[in-house]
Amino acid sequence: MFALEKPGRSGGFPSMASVGDFNVLSSSIPATKVELSVSCRNLLDRDTFSKSDPICVLYTQAIGNKEWREFGRTEVIDNTLNPDFVRKFIMDYFFEERENLRFDFYDVDSKSPNLSKHDFLGQMFCTLGEIVGSQGSRLEKPIVGIPGKKCGTVIVTAEELGCCRDSVLMQFCANKLDKKDFFGKSDPFLVFHRSNEDGSFTICHKTEVVKNTLNPVWQAFKISVRALCNGDYDRTIKVEVYDWDRDGSHDFIGEFTTSYRELSRGQSQFNVYEVINPKKKGKKKKYVNSGTVTLLSFLIETEVSFLDYIKGGTQINFTVAIDFTASNGNPSQPTSLHYMNPYQLNAYGMALKAVGEIIQDYDSDKMFPALGFGARLPPDGRVSHEFALNGNPQNPYCHGIDGVMEAYYRSLKSVQLYGPTNFAPVINHVARYAASVKDGSQYFVLLIITDGVISDMAQTKESIVNASKLPMSIIIVGVGPAEFDAMEELDGDVVRISSRGKFAERDIVQFVPFRDYIDRSGNHVLSMARLAKDVLAEIPEQFLSYMRVRGIKPSPAPPPYTPPIHVLQTQI
Hints:
Layout lengths: L31 E10 L12 E8 L6 E6 L15 E5 L6 E8 L11 E9 H6 L4 E5 L10 E8 L5 E10 L12 E8 L5 E6 L14 E4 H5 L6 E8 L7 E9 H4 L8 E3 L3 H6 L8 E11 L3 H6 L3 E9 L23 H13 L7 E7 L1 E3 L4 E3 L2 E2 L8 E3 H15 L1 E2 L6 H13 L5 E9 L6 H11 L4 E7 L6 H7 L6 E2 L2 E2 L5 E5 L10 H13 L2 H12 L22
Parallel strand pairs: 17-18, 17-24, 24-25, 25-28
Antiparallel strand pairs: 1-4, 1-8, 2-3, 2-5, 5-6, 7-8, 9-12, 9-16, 10-11, 10-13, 13-14, 15-16, 18-21, 18-22, 19-20, 19-23, 26-27
Pfam families: C2, Copine
Keywords: Calcium, Metal-binding, Phosphoprotein, Repeat
Function: Probable calcium-dependent phospholipid-binding protein that may play a role in calcium-mediated intracellular processes.
């Protein structure tokens, strides 16, 4: 992949494009890997007699201290203002984390790896979510950083690395297997092994036991291609046939070998295998086999991922609902959960920003409905459990998370905190929208931030059970010192939530108490990152469970970008 580099030009540059910082916490969790490709158009020309010789350097940002660390560098491309870099950046992608990125561009003038020795061509800031959430996972942004100059544009494309997401559904039967039991016939089962690079074998599947027959038909089973052959279609797969014994000393009947490529031919004369017992074969001259095993069916299924839907254009719509009940305390008092401290965010603001800043990358128009509940509204003091924070019930949308924060602060000055704490109206509000688009093009996430004890438990349960059939998820963040036992019940992780004898079709509620995330050192950036990680981690799986149940496949991604002909003068 890197052979297209100019020899000699990159001598001093570390080849780091696909090396990230090893993270002890996430190393055990298999992340989705995405490959970032970088191209630029109309870069600044810093060379007098020829065009610039650009390189791209990628930095990632640590969460706590905001320090930028170099992640990797592309190759240098000689003499072009429109580079399409060959070397890619391979990164771990987590929906629930905000990964800030910075792309710096330099005109390379010598072999020195020290960037200060080269001419700066500008930079671009974005998040990994912004790239992935853009149409076709392709982000185009202006390069900035040199005052008064047009620095050109950068195009970053994200491609999810296909770590072989195929699974196969297979079914086998056998004929005339050796009789191993004294009183009855055999009780056969199959054991599948994949071969390793060193010639050893690793067990990857066992079928069920079929009792008392020499001609068993096993149930169809599903296995990932990665588990079966590690994605290598020609790797040997060894299948052993055993006769089951209650004491665990199963008798070996025989074995055969095959490969994924052979099996993929499906039911045919190629997929009838002689079961051979090497010991018997060595002893008996007339030995033919110990029976045959036949492949009855072979079906490939591709597992689709969350990113397949995002790339195909599915939008995530984010709605926020804020608790304005009197138990929060008077907003003008520092003891209030709604206290407007000019120097730092209150708990409501922190929860809203932590979750909203990640989700907004997946919503192209960045317009978010923001609702309040449990307050008396001007001018007549009527109590509302579903009012627009911006004061416009016909159009409750706010622009970006900052717009939501602004509307929240404004409404604190105009409404009177009251009660009771009713969730059902805001859940039903979002459910009405979700019910109108069930084709998989949109998914709705409702964030409810509350200080406590819910007053309409029965109605809320019913609303959640009904909403579980819709493309939506609910995140509840509890702020303040109250007991949140009722919320745990809504979460449904331990016992699936039910209403009037009907159970929720899927688990769509995630509850967390904000106090569990307060950083003792007072580092709010860290507590917000931890909160977002926990409340958003379940969203991709909840999203996929809706799509699976409804049989909705991702839309094809828009065709890849092909640059206009006149800028294709890139020399590599």
